[in-house]
Design brief:
The protein has helices at residues 20-39, 42-51, 54-62, 81-88, 106-111, 125-130, 146-172, 193-224, 227-231, 237-267, 276-299, 304-320, 333-342, 345-356, 362-391; strands at residues 72-76, 99-100, 117-121, 138-141. The protein has 394 residues and is mainly α. The protein has two domains: 23-62 and 192-391, no CATH class; 72-172, abc type-2 transporter like fold.
Amino acid sequence: MTLLPAPPTPRLAESKPLSFADHVVNIFRLVIKELRSIRADPTMLILVVYAFSISVNTVATGAVTEATNLSVGVVDEDGSDLSRQIAEGLRRPTFQPPEQITASEIDPMMDQGKLLFVVEIPPNFEADIRAQRKTGIQINVDATAVAQAGNGASYLRTAIANEIQGFISGKEGSKAMPINLVLRAAFNPNLKTAWFSAMTQVINQITLLTVILTGAALIREREQGTVEHLLVMPVVPTEIMLAKMIANGLVILVAAMFSLQFVVHWWIGSPIAGSLLLFLLGAAIYALVVAALGIMLGTLTTTMGQFGLLAMPVLMVTQLLSGSSTPMESMPVWLQHVMQTISPTPHFVSFSQAVLFRGADVTLVWRPLVAMIIIGAVYFAVAARRFRRVIFGG
């Protein structure tokens, strides 16, 4: 009996290394998965819409720091033409029409918060001015409203001084000032805080929501156990990371551009001096950088509560020391260098203000772009290492 040779043992098919096109396809499909996850979370979508619409308008128009519509009382004990001229010189929009009161009404009305300023004009004030005798006007200020009290007192002194100077020049034939100072405010001629605050709020929301959405997407999959499904798929950790960063960054960028056009420009009326396409380029780079930060924070925590507690101080420090609320020059020099080295936010704030306010082109803002790319590369490398170790155990 002839024995037949044993059939050859079947070999397992060797896995073919993925090409660049395969990586692109994997990332595209994972991005679609992330976008569907975002669409399935209505609470997160409502948060994004609110943050880039109502929140931007509320912060811009509600937190006004310039002196406007200030309530003023006038105690006119002189009853002269000059005292009446001073009262008439307090005009809108800086001041409300002045309210004529008596000296005995000063304390009650200021205690009740009805008047922010009270101007007391003493008897014989005009006569003393004409005779060039030393005299004075007392201004009472309610300093509980600190911002308006400081700015408003300066405006009030200037308005009174201008009226007195005009009265002397008209009545006595005095010479005018030899120098005529002309003030021109660039980029914000009307000195409207709302214009600055609206764009600053959009910048802050890009930082806040990109970190939260990206980190929350990772934490949600870990809590629900769906991240284990990715372990059996022919994907690599970098593809998963990039998909989460691109998907969440894309949602934030779309919302930010709509906010700039419809909320900041049309609703609030703030002009946009520079190119929106250039701003979109810088915002896209920045969104990827802070999305990598969100991934890194997500790998340091295991629950959504832990992620929130960790993200809050990080976001507060980066925003408060970014130069959006206060100038970088007001910080200690060592702190400026630290923030510009470890945080991309100061560079993005500088880039955004230059493009949106001053109309700068790419030749003037390439340094912040390069700085964001370098910091982002470091963030991505650290986040990828943490992601591979925590999720894939590598």
